[in-house]
Design a protein that fits this description.
Elements lengths: L7 H28 L3 E5 L12 E6 L2 H5 L20 E2 L15 E6 L4 E4 L4 E2 L4 E8 L2 H6 L3 E10 L2 E10 L5 E7 L6 E8 L11 E11 L1
Parallel strand pairs: 3-10, 4-12, 6-12
Antiparallel strand pairs: 1-2, 1-9, 2-4, 5-7, 7-10, 8-9, 8-11, 11-12
């Protein structure tokens, strides 16, 4: 073994290298906790009837820091109702974000048509242009039970793998709502997902996210 390795200056260099590597590792975990899951897996649910092709299961994938970034359940979330059904409310970004209970490993996708309707005026946008959605909740009882609105943009890699590009949550406090956000993504084709949970269904391994999906193009 090289005796020079044990010189004081070499030992100090080795210690500093270990400290820098440790800080880089911790920094990576902190970054993942803010950015959320990078990939999800789409899996078939064998317990669901084969005739229903509208239902899929989304399973979160990643290390513990990535998955924990989406699991900070807030049971004190309050929702207000609007007595004037003709006024369209502009939804605000939800802060703090709702996070899912620790038991949640993913979610089941089902159409939201029973509870609400979502309209998007067009499907092609210039990079950075504002995308505007119209969300109508059908009744006051549903409004009181739903989580914040989850809006996500994903890129399909294969039949069972997608990459999450962006996701945000919006407070829904009225029956008629407008949601606006920037299409500041790379020029490509994406899937836009708009949906919510029912708060009393969240304590399940795979709660249902009631959603609608659109194919959008950024040019």
């Amino acid at each position: 073994m090289n005796k020079d390795f044990f010189k004081k200056e070499n030992i100090h260099n080795a210690i500093w290298a270990l400290i820098i590597a440790l800080f880089a590792f911790i920094g990576g975990l902190v970054w993942q906790s803010f950015t959320g899951p990078e990939r999800v897996i789409v899996e078939k649910d064998e317990n669901i009837s084969r005739k229903d092709t509208t239902i899929t299961i989304i399973k979160f994938e990643g290390d513990s820091a990535t998955i924990n970034a989406i699991k900070n359940f807030n049971p004190q979330l309050s929702v207000k109702s609007s007595s004037d059904k003709s006024i369209r409310n502009t939804a605000s970004i939800a802060r703090p974000k709702i996070r899912l209970p620790n038991m949640v490993e993913g979610y089941i996708q089902k159409p939201l048509n029973t509870f609400a309707s979502v309209v998007i005026p067009r499907l092609t946008y210039s990079k950075g242009e504002m995308i505007e959605l119209e969300l109508k909740i059908f009744d006051e009882e549903t409004l009181k039970k739903i989580s914040p609105l989850f809006i996500g943009v994903v890129k399909t890699n294969s039949e069972k793998s997608i990459t999450q590009i962006w996701e945000e949550q919006f407070n829904i406090t009225d029956l008629n709502n407008t949601i606006r956000f920037s299409s500041d993504f790379g020029r490509d084709e994406y899937e836009l997902s708009v949906g919510f949970y029912l708060m009393d269904e969240l304590h399940q391994k795979y709660p249902t996210r009631y959603s609608k999906r659109f194919k959008i193009v950024i040019i």
